[in-house]
Design brief:
Layout: H1 10-14, H2 24-33, E1 35-39, E2 44-46, E3 54-60, E4 63-69, E5 72-79, E6 85-87, E7 104-107, E8 111-117, H3 118-128, H4 130-198, H5 205-224, H6 230-246, H7 252-261, H8 266-276, H9 281-319, E9 327-329, H10 331-342, E10 349-355, E11 363-365, H11 367-385, E12 388-398, E13 401-408, H12 438-449, E14 453-459, E15 462-470
Parallel strand pairs: 10-12
Antiparallel strand pairs: 1-8, 2-7, 3-6, 3-8, 4-5, 4-7, 9-11, 12-13, 13-15, 14-15
Helix pairs in contact: 4-9, 5-8, 5-9, 6-7, 7-9, 9-10, 10-11, 11-12
Domain Histidine kinase: 307-473
Domain Cyclic nucleotide-binding: 18-125
Enzyme class: transferase
Length: 485
């Protein structure tokens, strides 16, 4: 087959489809610079991740190509076609990219390979095909740069959408706090006026002290007032209204709801009457009602401010602005922060179900980037369901990895589409509605940066995206590293 044990003739090289269109001078050059290497069946030709020093072309035998997935060597293809190639296929890019083997090649049977050093392969391509090399180089870096730019755009669009929802969520408690503050100002002014009427000399010191004690009791009751059902609330208000009207207090229908909201009843009002007497009952009741209303308004303001603080905290947790890029995190905190950001986007008829296993251990992760994954998956789930459905967020263990599942009750992913959903720029959304990078970005974050996995199970009425994350500390890429392809 060969004139020398380690060489192929130009004529033999021409029988390989990769070289059949080369001219005689080019074949002579290859014959001079290349060599034949033999590998026994079952041996490794080269391993993924090692420096890419050679370009291999199969001359005889069968080979298998494999990739590392979660540390396991997974076979991708197997062939015995003469002329198939592998190895330093990106040597023509030189130092612009890391020159490492992107996969592993194994000889299935005894095999012969035509082998070129990476630098010789790069020289031949650049010297013989300068225009195609410029085009290939431009395509490679253009696609990579475009993917990075569109990926950033995808993140900005998602952030803009979530920011709009967050603004809406912040507006509600802020407006409630402003309204309550305005009403509170009036109530405080009214309370000062009624206090002046009560303390104009008609009440002796002991009666005034008793009234102040009842005021303190009213404040304490507001803090512990039980929540009543609508029917129970209406009954309690009717009872208080009747009592107030029977004792000559005007506007009883306005005072009763406030007193009921503060957890007060007719027995307490009877004590007020005993303390101040019938003549000053109305002024005392109104003063105490102002006190109760003031406490209720302050509680409303406190709840609104707490809500605002919680939303800001969720936004901070979502963006991870004050955290180191890589740290140990509780995925439930990340999921909850993302769901808070989505609250304004979840339709009224979409039910959110959280199925959390709170016993799960924390995982080492880039928190902000995992939040981007949850954002993409939840946004896709909501888009699939439309205005009605059930969104389920589930956590648990699958083997030795932590699993996060996002499930929707949408129509499912068509079989012809499913193999392409993780491809960059592939989208089923209308033109202008999606970039097709959401799942690609999610895949890169989960698989390349966290050494995890992302899978999908789909059927009409149920689609589940499952993210699997290693619990043990790994060796993640640096934040600035470009994901490998």
């Amino acid at each position: 087959m060969t004139t020398q044990p380690d060489r192929l003739t130009p004529a033999q090289l021409r029988t390989l489809f990769l070289f059949e269109a080369l001219d005689d001078a080019q074949l002579d050059w290859l014959a001079e610079h290349g060599r034949v290497e033999q590998r026994a069946g079952g041996t490794l030709v080269y391993a993924e991740g090692e420096p890419a020093t050679c370009f291999f072309v199969l001359v005889r035998g069968a080979v298998a190509l494999s990739r590392l997935v979660h540390g396991d060597d997974v076979e991708v293809s197997r062939t015995e076609q003469r002329g198939v190639y592998g190895g330093a296929t990106q040597a023509y890019l030189g130092e612009q990219v890391d020159q490492v083997y992107r996969n592993s090649l194994r000889a299935v049977t005894d095999a012969d390979f035509f082998v070129l050093l990476a630098e010789d392969f790069a020289y031949a391509l650049r010297s013989w095909f300068p225009m195609p090399m410029h085009l290939l180089e431009g395509l490679f870096f253009g696609m990579r740069d475009s993917q990075a730019i569109v990926g950033e755009r995808e993140r900005l669009l998602a952030l803009g959408s979530l920011s709009a929802g967050l603004t809406h969520e912040l507006n509600n408690p802020a407006a409630a706090a402003v309204r309550a503050t305005s009403v509170l100002r009036d109530r405080v002014a009214g309370m000062r006026h009624k206090l002046a009427m009560i303390a104009d000399g008609r009440l002796d010191g002991s009666a005034l002290h008793g009234l102040v004690a009842l005021q303190e009791e009213a404040v304490a009751r507001v803090a512990t007032a039980p929540k009543l059902s609508p029917v129970a609330t209406a009954d309690a208000e009717d009872t208080l209204t009747d009592w107030l009207e029977e004792h000559g207090v005007d506007g009883a229908w306005d005072l009763a709801p406030i007193l009921v909201g503060g957890g007060l009843d007719t027995a307490w009002l009877t004590r007020v009457k005993t303390a101040v007497g019938p003549a000053d009952l109305e002024a005392a009741v109104r003063w105490l009602t102002y006190t109760v209303d003031t406490e209720l308004l302050m509680r409303e303001i406190g709840d609104a401010v707490t809500r605002i603080s919680g939303l800001v905290g969720a936004a901070k947790q979502y963006s991870q602005l004050d955290r180191a890029p890589h740290r140990v995190v509780d995925v439930h905190d990340l999921l909850d922060a993302t769901l808070v950001m989505f609250k304004g986007k979840i339709p009224a008829e979409v039910t959110l179900v959280r199925e959390y296993d709170r016993g799960l251990p924390p995982v080492p992760a880039y928190a902000a980037e995992l939040n981007q994954v949850w954002t993409n998956l939840i946004d896709n789930a909501l888009g699939a369901m439309g205005e009605k459905g059930v969104l389920t967020v589930h956590t648990g263990l699958v083997g030795d990895r932590l699993a996060v599942e996002i499930t929707d009750t949408g129509p499912g992913i068509p079989p012809e589409v499913r193999p392409r959903i993780f491809e960059p720029f592939f989208t089923t959304k209308p033109v202008g509605a999606g970039t097709g990078l959401g799942l690609d970005i999610s895949y890169r974050i989960v698989v390349h940066k966290h050494h995890g996995d992302i899978r999908v199970e789909t059927e009409p009425g149920r689609t589940t995206f499952r993210v699997l994350l290693p619990i043990a500390e790994g060796a993640p890429e640096e934040p600035g590293d470009a994901p490998t392809t």
